[in-house]
Amino acid sequence: MRQTRQRSFRQGPLSRGSFWQWPFWQRGKDEDHVSAGEAAAAAAAEQEPLPEPDPAAAAFFDVDNTMMRGASIYYFARGLAARKLFTMRDLAMFAWGQAAFRLRGSENSEHIGSAKEAALAFVAGQKVAGIVKLSEEIYDEVMADRIWSGTRTLALQHLDAGQQVWLVTATPVEVARTIAHRLGLTGALGTVAETSDGVYTGRLVGNLLHGPAKAEAVRALAHREGLDLARCAAYSDSINDLPMLTAVGHPHAVNPDAELREHAKENGWPIHDFRTGRRVTMIALPAAAGAGALAGGVAAGIALRRHYRAN
Question: Percentage of the chain with pLDDT > 90?
């Protein structure tokens, strides 16, 4: 009889009622396993089903001061300083330049042009893999704790609705992609530097992803992904992103500057402000929009070049 039972056990799965076909040391365990499995399946049936994909809608989020407190490229520079690739004096000068840029409250073509020329010099000869690795390390060390939880919640609501969520920023795309990946978002649109065989050539592909260029990037992505921009949403803190905000059907102001706040009020746009008290002023100092933020990337790149030449 023992041999018959053993053969039956090996030949195939047993029904719940086949208690005597199990060896005696397995009999109690089998019933417990079945009960646990059935309970888990029943609990799963009570959970809300995953949302149906909504392929025609998406949300676009600016990064600096919208998704993250301060400027992402500034924190990247801080990470380089911690690695002795960037001096604290250079970092202090960069922070002061950002504050002055923020207080000026405007950008001009000469300033943006200078930033572009410097950016071309910064990327030349750098390995893409090195920048990506650094951006991942520095995000975990410096940037992760500076994500606005309120803005991230807004992004997750779009994901929960089955929609794509993209970051749109003047920050180099390698850094932007790292932020998007760490936040579990769909992807990122950022300033693209030309590469050849995994090395930056020193030329940009197109121009800085700033102002009107952000709107063009959103339109190009919408065409590629089959999105209906009238059903899409965009979020930003800056009046400089007005072209992107007006390119979609559902614009939102997040931690807005004075001009954007006024524009949002006049047009009935939702305003989300996650800042409180004097912290608003403190956060504004290390933050810069558009070309001002890119200047940090330029300085960071120069520091990298010095390091590589020295080695």
Answer: 45
Whether 62 sits among the annotated catalytic residues: the reply is yes
Task: Please report where in the chains the tokens 């010099």 appear, as a residue.
Answer: 121
Q: Which domains does the chain have, with CATH numbers?
A: 2-41 (no CATH), 58-310 (3.40.50.1000)
Q: What is the pLDDT of residue 35?
A: 73
Distance (Å, rounded) from C-alpha 108 to C-alpha 94? 19
Contacts of 236 (CB under 8 A, 6+ apart): 61, 62, 66, 244, 245, 252, 253, 254, 256, 260
Task: Note if the pTM is more than 0.90.
Answer: no
Whether pLDDT at 101 is above 80: no
CB 254 within 8 A of CB 237: yes
Catalytic residue among 30, 54, 62, 197: 62
Q: Which of 64, 237, 241, 257 is catalytic?
A: 64
